[in-house]
Amino acid sequence: MTSIRLASVHKTYPDGTSALRGVDLHVPEGSAFGLIGPSGAGKSTVARLVEGLERPTSGEVRVGDVDLAKLDEASLVAQRRRIGVVFQHFNLLAQRDVARNVALPLELAGVPRADRDARVAELLALVGLDGLAHRFPAQLSGGQKQRVGIARALAAKPSLLVLDEATSALDPTTAANIVELLAELRKKSPITMLVITHQLEVVRALCTHVAVLEHGLVRESGLVSELRAELLPGGGAHGRGRNELLFSEAS
Ligand SMILES: Nc1ncnc2c1ncn2[C@@H]1O[C@H](COP(=O)(O)OP(=O)(O)OP(=O)(O)O)[C@@H](O)[C@H]1O
């Protein structure tokens, strides 16, 4: 498990776009932290900073004990391998079968063949893909592809999983099954999850904490249990006015 801390983070892209304008965020160890907000709010930028794919223009990004700004390129590459990432569009390699997709991070880490095979079998059972090891991505449903993506993200036993719109490309039933799988994984082994989503139902079903990002700033954050009840699915979330608070002012 690992915590994440962003302190006064600004990110301006080379073309002058100001994506983050002073973000403070604390993702506690072992939490499932939902990051929500409208398109362009800066959610993916936060993910890329945490993954070490981008550097902040100013401010500090810490993952566990590590201040990412202090790492040279080689250490950053090593750090990236400690983080599992699940993508919206799965990012599977079409020419590799399921087993070899899942094995990829283990190959990159130099894990011997026999250990890799054992770990892949364990992971496929964990995500409910027993028997599909030798299918190719084109022969899988969207939900099965995402199970492969999750197994691959977990292969190197990361203490942090970043899920960037991991259920957004799936139909509602399949998305709910994937959320259920993620919730079960959290119960089985302690892991911190940063869950980027625009789906409030994902936050409700999976997350312990949530922050709302808007125009590059954290507008609100808190425990999911403190989210105002009527904003959760089934409680009239669709009728929410744009400027209404997600959390009750008292909390
Ligand atoms: N590489 C880049 N170069 C320039 N501007 C960028 C780059 N990446 C993102 N942006 C801009 O930064 C802002 C935040 O983008 P970001 O992708 O982080 O938002 P988001 O909340 O993840 O949006 P979405 O929900 O649509 O994915 C947007 O204005 C976007 O156009």
UniProtKB/TrEMBL annotation:
<dbReference type="InterPro" id="IPR027417">
    <property type="entry name" value="P-loop_NTPase"/>
</dbReference>
<feature type="domain" description="ABC transporter">
    <location>
        <begin position="4"/>
        <end position="240"/>
    </location>
</feature>
<dbReference type="GO" id="GO:0016887">
    <property type="term" value="F:ATP hydrolysis activity"/>
</dbReference>
<dbReference type="InterPro" id="IPR003593">
    <property type="entry name" value="AAA+_ATPase"/>
</dbReference>
<protein>
    <submittedName>
        <fullName>Methionine ABC transporter ATP-binding protein</fullName>
    </submittedName>
</protein>
<keyword id="KW-0813">Transport</keyword>
<dbReference type="GO" id="GO:0006865">
    <property type="term" value="P:amino acid transport"/>
</dbReference>
<keyword id="KW-0472">Membrane</keyword>
<keyword id="KW-0547">Nucleotide-binding</keyword>
<dbReference type="InterPro" id="IPR017871">
    <property type="entry name" value="ABC_transporter-like_CS"/>
</dbReference>
<dbReference type="InterPro" id="IPR050086">
    <property type="entry name" value="MetN_ABC_transporter-like"/>
</dbReference>
<dbReference type="InterPro" id="IPR003439">
    <property type="entry name" value="ABC_transporter-like_ATP-bd"/>
</dbReference>
<keyword id="KW-1278">Translocase</keyword>
<keyword id="KW-1003">Cell membrane</keyword>
<dbReference type="Pfam" id="PF00005">
    <property type="entry name" value="ABC_tran"/>
</dbReference>
<keyword id="KW-0029">Amino-acid transport</keyword>
<keyword id="KW-0067">ATP-binding</keyword>
<dbReference type="GO" id="GO:0005524">
    <property type="term" value="F:ATP binding"/>
</dbReference>
